[in-house]
Amino acid sequence: MVAAIGLIAGPAAPSFGQSAGLAPTHEGKPGRPTFEAGYLNGVSGPEPAKTVSLAGTWDFTPLTNTVCTGGGPFGTTTGPMTCVDSAASGKRTTIQVPGGGWLKQGYADLSRAVYSRTIRVPDVAADQVTRLTFGAVNHRATVKVDGRTVGTNVTSYTASTFDLTGFVRPGGTHRIDVTVEGRKALVGPDGRYLVPEGASWSDDVAQGIFRSADLEVLPAVSVTDAVVRTSVSKRQLSYDVSIANRTSRPQRVTLSGALSSWNREHWNYPSIPRRDVTVPADTTITVTVALPWRAGPDSFWWPNVPYREGYRAQLHDLHLAVTTGDRHAKPSTYDVRFGFRELAQAGDHYELNGVRVNFRGDSLQGANYDNIDHHGRSDAYDTFPGFLKPSRGNGGWPEAVDDYQRLNYNSVRIHQIPATPYMLDVADEMGLMIQDETAIRGSNNRENFDAGRDNMVDHLAALVQRDRNHASVLRWSQANEPQVQFFANPGAGPAFDETLYQTVMRYDTTRPISTDGESPDLPHDNYTVFCHYHGNSFGKYDESICDGPTGKPHGQGEFIWSADSTPQGLTWFGTATMRMREQGGSEARPYTLLSGWASHIPGVKRTDMQLEAGYPNGPHPIYGEDNLPNPWANPTIRLIQNAFNPVAVIDSAFWDANKLSNEAGAWPTTPAVITPGPTTRRLTVFNDTFSGERLTVSWSLRAGSASGRPVAQGSADLKVALGGRQQYPITFATPATGRPLYLDITVKKPGEGTLFHDASTVFQVKPSA
Questions:
Q1: Fewer Cβ atoms within 10 A, N terminus or C terminus of the chain?
Q2: Among candidates 602, 426, 374, which has minimal Cα distance to 14?
Q3: Calpha distance 301→338 (Å, rounded)
Q4: Integer Cα distance of 96 and 60 in angstroms
Q5: How many CB atoms lie within 10 A of CB 7?
Q6: Which of 74-78, 185-189, 355-359 is predicted least confidently?
Q7: Structural Rg of the chain based on CA atoms
Q8: What is the pTM for the complete model shown?
Q9: Both ends of the chain: CA-CA distance in Å?
């Protein structure tokens, strides 16, 4: 099974290859970058007949400024708002597109504006389809061409696409105007947002057009979407292909497909027969293809657990093509990269490819990084080097993923601000498990789930459709804390949760779903609720895996905040998580790593951002690159690394006695007291890997220091179930000594070397009475 997770070389040019650095600066206001980076939209999707980048300088007319103030029982970032509109300058100026949106370019109070420019439409074919696509718009965009209204879209962090076909002429020049309304323009009479905006506490999240802007030309008959489904239990690959016919007559088309290895392996792929179908005039049809998967277990997608430097997960490419009887017409092609894997909610736990998986990791809150002033605040995911391809002096998002994995975080919940497709591409390649979460947020009592329900549902649908082909996306979090004990969010409750659940199921039936917070359970076998801050434990140590739904996975999705920016709280990341592991929790996700170690995203200094608690005057993180140049030598980081290690072995009583640490975050604080003579200690052995049940646990008792002379030692070959844990008692003769004794533990697996080492358990010998 080790080969199934194999250490193989990736392709010559992986999708996270070297970036040239900062995106070019176009004409307009000096020094303002466009942040144009086409790779951010991901490796999968259609191949247009022609794409014209519209990145650069656009005309820009600010129309309305809006200032919103508020204050609930928990400060100015909670509770309904009072918003006051005033006229903006109304004068035409220029702005960079995408440029990280308008907030990043200095328009802090702007809520409504018009982007304008002239476009020349490529002349590819008389019956071509021409569309305008923005990588992301927050939130409502209305497009006009030569004064005629094309349509209106409401989106949150996902693409906004407009079909211009009936409004433009191939080869023609046209004027486009895009009126965009940000979140402050979309506040209802009750002072709450009508759109899912992801971070009601922050003034830094992206507004306007961001990520990309392109004019695309597609054939009149084309593949508009494709979704791949993989079943390990059935050894089956199936996919749906949407084929659109924009002509006025039926079209007889041939759909063909081919499979290949992204890793350049030689798998025994099934052959894909051609399909001849008729697509009626001005209609989109869906063709479903189901095939046996013959490539074998070594072709499955597995996460990088245990951590191996340079690991690449197995990925596959599906190339689709649609041809018509017109030999002069260019075929329509569509590429999907996928991983062959299956996550199932199996009663009270999860199974990945039939193996139990326990999720341990982070909630990455992008809004915190939006607070960094990098050519202006906002839109960190599309503009800050630590979230982009590697560039000079910065390892980019691949280094961030490696930091997570080296820390032994096996998964990341992309919290509230959805990731870019590029970020998910890298997670696919490097084997990081992702929980994909919407921007639907009840935490601050500033979203109206009743009046804004259509926008909430449409956002969830768009996110699922965008991300469902990513191998790393294993679970959906449909909303964050829509129902909490201290707020009454309009429209929250089981009916809203059920609507969101059914929306996910409409577009993806292959992944488990959860609501994160205090919502009641729903009666679905692939759904559960993970509690946050059990027993109102904000800012406190807590190790509960919660009294969740009976027969479903248990765990805690957020705990420790707002003590996460204190040395003691950061130590709890390790100690509380270990206690949850001992209880068999399926989910342990302390909140949030960036508050303690912000520079796990490369390029961040501790003074670059201020945190959510007390925003906008919150504390700085504990560590950044300026005060933690070597994180792997830091004792707290090493403690967390060991606590999250998939094959950790601990002296349970010792860890329990030291779990609270102290204000300095010291570990350990209290030696275990033992007496001379025979001593038995009970160790807990974990095996949260995906192959290999046999572990060799070796221990030695060292006098005076962790590297001192051994006074006792032993080893055992244990069989520990995958995803399981077991007790292992050791007995030794305690010498009568005034020196401390250190328990040095190592764990190995056949053919894998040492996977765990710890010598932090210390004993003080107390003479017998």
A1: C
A2: 426
A3: 9
A4: 9
A5: 12
A6: 74-78
A7: 27
A8: 0.96
A9: 53
**Res. 4: pLDDT tops 70:** no
| 120: phi then psi, degrees, rounded to nearest 5 | -115, 125
- Given a contact cutoff of 8 angstroms between Cβ atoms, the answer to whether 391 and 14 are in contact is no
Kindly give the pairing relationship between strand 527-532 and strand 513-516: parallel
Structure-block tokens of residue 392: 């000079």
Mean pLDDT score, 270-279: 97
Whether residue 336 is predicted with pLDDT greater than 50 in this model: the reply is yes
Identify whether the C-beta of residue 687 lies closer than 8 Å to the C-beta of residue 647.
Answer: yes
Query: In what order do the strands lie in the sheet containing 343-346?
Result: 343-346, 349-352, 355-357
pLDDT over threshold 70, residue 20: no
Alpha-carbon gap, residue 601 to 198, rounded angstroms: 20
Query: Residue 485: its pLDDT value, please?
Result: 87
Q: Which one-letter amino acid corresponds to residue 297?
A: P
- The reported pLDDT for the residue numbered 335 is 99
Q: At what angle do helices 635-643 and 567-582 cross, to 10 degrees?
A: 20
Assigned token pair, 644: 């999250």
Torsions phi, psi for 598 (to 5 deg): -70, -30
CA–CA gap between residue 259 and residue 269 (Å, rounded): 7
d(C-alpha 764, C-alpha 742), whole Å: 9
Q: What is the DSSP string of 111-154?
A: EEEEEEEEEE---S-TT-EEEEEEEEEEEEEEEEETTEEEEEEE
Q: What single DSSP character describes residue 487?
A: B
Task: Enumerate residues 6+ apart whose C-beta is below 8 A from 675.
Answer: 734, 765, 766, 767, 768
The two structure tokens encoding residue 755: 């996977």
Q: State CA 616 to chain mean position distance.
A: 25
Residue in the structure block whose two tokens are 């019956």: 127
- Strand locations in 639-752 (E): 649-651, 672-674, 677-687, 694-703, 710-719, 724-734, 741-749
- Choose among 709, 753, 700: nearest CA to 730: 700
Cβ atoms of 723 and 715 within 8 Å: the answer is: no
Q: Give CA–CA dist 433/746, Å, rounded.
A: 27
CA distance 653 to 239: 51
Residue 566 sits at the vertex; the CA angle it makes with 74 and 381, to the nearest 5 degrees, is 75
Q: How many Å apart are CA 736 and CA 734, to the nearest integer?
A: 7
Please tell me the distance from the alpha carbon of residue 202 to that of residue 192, in angstroms, as a whole number: 14
**For residues 138 and 205, is the Cβ–Cβ distance under 8 A?**
yes
Place of tokens 């086409």: 38
581 SS3 class: helix
**DSSP string over 490-557:** TT-SHHHHHHHHHHHHHH--SS-EEEESSPPP-S-TTEEEEEESTTT-TTS--------STTS--EEE
SS3 state at 316: strand
- What length does the chain have? 769
Q: For each of the domains in the chain, give its residue range(s) and CATH number, in order of start.
A: 3-14+221-338 (2.60.40.10), 38-218 (2.60.120.260), 355-644 (3.20.20.80), 654-765 (2.60.40.10)
